[in-house]
Every structure is written in structure tokens, then in C-alpha cells.
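Progress report, Aim 2. The chain analyzed during this reporting quarter is listed below.
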Amino acid sequence: MVSHLLQSIPPEAVYLIVGLMIMVESLGIPVPGEIALVTAAVLATRHTMALSPAWIAIAASAGAIAGDSVGFLIGRRYGGSLRMPYGRFLAANASGGIVWAAGMTFLIWFLGLAAEQWLTRFSWLGLAAAVLGGLGVTLLVRRKTRSLTRQAEAEAQAEAEARAAEARAEPRARIEPDRMAGRREGGD
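Predicted C-alpha cells for the chain:
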């Protein structure tokens, strides 16, 4: 029943769902985008589904890039920015999104293919191991990404604070020579 239902879904709908869910998740809204990606990648191992892991990766990449870009623009407009130019952000975001989405998709897809072979010989234990391994890798990548993001934000904040301190000190440096000149003139 479930297998027949899944086979009736057009591949384009799966790609669209994956891209939209990851885009919404990238905006910070808690939806299961990564679970949708993992599910689609596992479904791609079923040849009756006609799903392409490459198109799943493209949809996930596009969703991640679009969601992060919208988040960047919202943050720039309403939350203040770290003075990072959008082009630089887009380059970093796009490369990270593509590596993440393609890496996760193909890793899960290959694990799914391996699990399919194991399941023909062993039991559902192989599938559970593949899913847990995929989730473990997802959590590891997510933790590392958050750590790098926090580090970049801290560096940008320190740089902004240093510039602000420099800007506050500069007017004082101009005032002091003017006061000294006034004292010399008055003292003569």
C-alpha cells in the first residue's frame, strides 16, 4: 500500500518538496528538511521511483542557498549586519550549501544502496544502521557548521567593535590638539 502510494508521486514533486522544506528550515523555521533530504535519497535507491540523487542534491542546494539568502537579507534589513557584502556571503553560502546537500544526498544514497543489498541477505538491521549513520553524519556536519558560524560571527563582531572604538578615539585626537593650541594662545 505505502509502496504503491510512494510510486505514484511524480519525481518533480519530491524535488520541489525537498527544496522547499530545506529552504524553510534554512530560514530558521523548525521543519524536518534534513529528514526530507534523507528520505528522498533513500527513496532514490528504489529504481521504481525514478528519482535522481543528482536532482535531489540540486533541489536541496537550491533550497539551502535560497533560504540562507533570504535570512541574510532579512538580517541585513531588520537585524543589522556584520558588514559582509552579499556577494561574499553568497559565494560562501553557495559553496557550503552545494557541498552539504550533494555530500549528504550521495552519502545517504550510497548507504541506501548498500543497505538494500544487505537487507536482501540480512535483516532490517542494515537499514537501521544506515539511517543512524546518516543521522550521525548530519548531526556532526551541523555541529561543525554551527561552530564555524559562531567563530565567524565572533570575529566579525570583534572587528566591528574595534572599528567603533577607533571611530570614537579619532574625534578625541582632533579635539586635543585644538585645546592645546588654545592654551598656548591664551598663555602668551
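The chain has a mean pLDDT of 85. The chain has one domain: 2-187. These observations will guide the mutagenesis work planned for the next reporting period.
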